[in-house]
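Lab meeting tomorrow. Please check the following:
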Amino acid sequence: MFNLSGTELVFIAVLSLIVLGPEKLPGAMRRFGKIYREIRNISGNMQREVQKVMDAPIREVRKLVEEPSHVERPAAAAASAFTAATAPPAPPAPAIPNTPPNTDTTPGV
């Protein structure tokens, strides 16, 4: 849980022996052990509760994914239906005037 190496544990033990002293150290270690055990129990209980709550929805999703669909379609019909449903609409054709543009630049004549 804490990923401490051997030297780190020895350092913590020596430091706690210096701070607490030899009289209070055994009682402090017992209290730490009880607190650590309680934290692990609470954590385990929470994990079990979350797992129990999530099991039913996960089973439903797996059942939906693994269950084949009841509608049978030929592959070509299914592909054309998918293509028609997902194809964007065709853009409108640009308007082309029937008369040529006015290129006469002479004024009023």
